[in-house]
Design a protein that fits this description.
- The chain is of the alpha/beta class.
- Helices cover 36% and strands 18% of the residues.
- The protein has a single domain, classed as 3-Layer(aba) Sandwich (Rossmann fold), CATH 3.40.50.9100.
- It binds 1,3,4-trihydroxy-5-OXO-cyclohexanecarboxylic acid (DQA).
């Protein structure tokens, strides 16, 4: 069983970028802990970070038929990218939307997620812990669906 973790724009700057909002851990630290959760369940995890919307869409296409779940923190594309929405709609596995911060408690433009309507669930506002929770949720949702 396999989970694909996707990271959108500016998440490559985690640790240095607005640490008061996003914490001081680097993306690699979050990925390491997310991988450890997957491994505990006997799953494998791959990760891609991109600042490019099209590359993110391609990564969702690549997960079709290959990954049992996608955990996606699409950054600001979560609020704007209908092409990402459509790609996820065409993906058959479990989708967990992830945010370090709680977008609902921030500026109004962050209150709408175009990922949410095509996600099975959402982990937000938990900081770095969210990466572990989101993988845990993806694995267990896939199990409940009978696909794991
Ligand atoms: C974010 C929240 C988004 O609104 C923002 O654009 C990000 C990070 C989060 O993880 O809290 O880039 O996805």
């Amino acid at each position: 069983m396999h989970v694909t973790l996707l990271s959108g724009p500016n998440l490559d700057l985690l640790g240095a970028r607005e640490p008061e909002l996003y914490g001081t851990d680097a993306l690699a630290d979050h990925v390491r802990r997310a991988s450890a959760v997957a491994e505990r369940h006997g799953w494998t995890l791959d990760h891609l970070q991109t600042n490019d919307e099209g590359v993110l869409v391609d990564a969702v296409h690549a997960a079709r038929g290959r990954a049992d779940a996608i955990v996606v923190n699409a950054g600001a594309l979560s609020h704007t990218s209908w092409s990402l929405h459509d790609a996820l709609a065409a993906y058959e596995g479990v989708v967990v939307e992830l945010h370090l911060s709680n977008p609902a408690a921030r500026e109004p433009f962050r209150h709408t997620s175009v990922v949410a309507p095509v996600a099975d669930g959402l982990v937000a506002g938990m900081g770095g812990l969210g990466y572990e929770l989101a993988v845990e949720a993806a694995v267990r949702l896939a199990g409940a669906r009978g696909t794991a």
